UniProtKB/TrEMBL annotation:
This is Methyltransferase domain-containing protein. The lineage of its organism: Bacteria, Bacillati, Bacillota, Bacilli, Bacillales. Pfam families: Methyltransf_23. GO terms for molecular function: methyltransferase activity. It comes from Shouchella miscanthi. GO terms for biological process: methylation.
Amino acid sequence: METSNHMLDPWEVLKTASTLLKPSGSIYASIPNVGHITIMEQLLSGTWTYTESGLLDKTHFGFFTKAEIYALFDSQGFDIIAINQLMNTGERETRLLERTTAFQYIVHARKRE
């Protein structure tokens, strides 16, 4: 699945994918984390600057946190089997650290039977 932030309607894409998958079929997605510390720093300084690449890539249509990724897949009949984060740091010390340093989430979800 193309990353959902490059889609106008990722909910509809998942709905369509669900009709094409066999029962218990899987889908994988790579979704940037809008909760990353660099974005929060921008918001706290009063900016939201789009860039040529990265988390605020000009081609991104939607933005997701880990909780919203779960909600997206659940709403379309998928159970997340695994969600892994690509981190900027080498360790996971706290939940806050995880949420703010995860650059991107790699999702493996299975169609609910």
